[in-house]
Amino acid sequence: MSYEVTATISGLPVDAVATFDVSDEGIYLYGTSTPGCSSFFGGPVRCTLIGTGAPQVVKFTVIRISGSPVLTMRVASDQVDDADLSNNSVDLHLHRDSTDD
Description:
Blueprint: E1 2-9, E2 17-31, E3 37-38, E4 46-50, E5 56-76, H1 83-86, E6 87-93
Antiparallel strand pairs: 1-5, 2-4, 2-5, 3-4, 5-6
């Protein structure tokens, strides 16, 4: 099953550099066309973000082949002193929507 994911990262100060990455416990294929992001050979998405003062959007697709239906998305920055902004993660639970074929 294929999923389209949109993540909005906000609160990153101007010119601060952060990484956004996705991890999983299973076999997944990823793809992204978001500038600054890559998915090496279909592996998990990894992005380098540079703060603009405005929210930034990362979009990617993921196909779950097997394993846990949970993705962990993480934003981390060594340049941000605020603990609420410097190292955050969220689990995304993938599920089949009743409108899926």
